[in-house]
Design a protein that fits this description.
332 residues, alpha/beta, TIM Barrel, 2 domains, eight-stranded parallel beta sheet, three-stranded antiparallel beta sheet, 12 helices
Length: 332
Amino acid sequence: MANLRTPLCDLLGCEVPILLAGMGGVARWELAAAVANAGGFAMLGMVRESPELIETEVRALRAASNRPFAVNVIPSATDPALLDRQLSRCLDLGVRAFTFFWDVVPEAVARVKREGCLVLHQVGTVDAARQAQEAGADVLIAQGIEAGGHVHGRTGAFALAGAVLDVATVPVVLSGGISTGRGLAAALALGAQGVQCGTAFLATTEAFAHDYHKARVVAAAGEDTVLTDAFVLNWPKGAAVRVIGNSVTAALGDRLMGHDPDTLPREVIADDLGQPLLRYSTDSPMRHTSGALEEMALYAGQGAGAIHQVMPAGDRLRQMVREAEACLERLG
């Protein structure tokens, strides 16, 4: 592991520079604890979740791991009153690191920085990287178009990370299509100080995603994923996501982009513990979801093609570490 250690590890308090993406709904305490206990840096995906659920998840994570972690929220896509309650509860609980995404909201960064917290900010453009850094971000996560889930930019991960490295004075993490140790080694060779992985950890036993979603990731090749803004209910207009192609995207033909949430139909297609879920919503199937799972947003990045089985998250992380070390040793 010594070959992989970067200054980012010292900053975050992890052993290897592999970050768990703060996937909403999927990155709950079980997955976060598994990644943290295996030496990576964990994030709880608490996008638009209630303060009560955040407290439950934080306490459960701390009971399962004594490693540092971050809580991921989305300031620009969350009702301001809810965001205020989320941040207040996190700070009351002594959370020491946050991950933010989408448009940079300087006030949110400043609020948690005043409390001495670390801020990791995921960005999709060089301009956003500059804005996040000026707002006080301690780490920049450069997310490429290959990434699963919500994708903010339109540039490949390595091209974007290279450009962000040119302007960054803080550590840069590469995200998008990374699901193997070879990708980690390549990111480190580029000059990034770590990688962030989502899809690779979605297909694990501890992830809160539905088994159907995990199976579709395992079966998918990178070219089976598509970028579309059709799954946009609950998010601002134009918010594109990368998903595994399904009957919904197939019916769109070449009209994958340009959808207005105000004009999309509201039709219930699934249920999650009594909560109705709509076609075209950003909801992906969780453990307890039932209904038309195939028609939901099945998030996955282009790195899905290298994922061939569902396994414990710790095993996947250690596999990535071994592969990366072997790659770097071959490079001399």
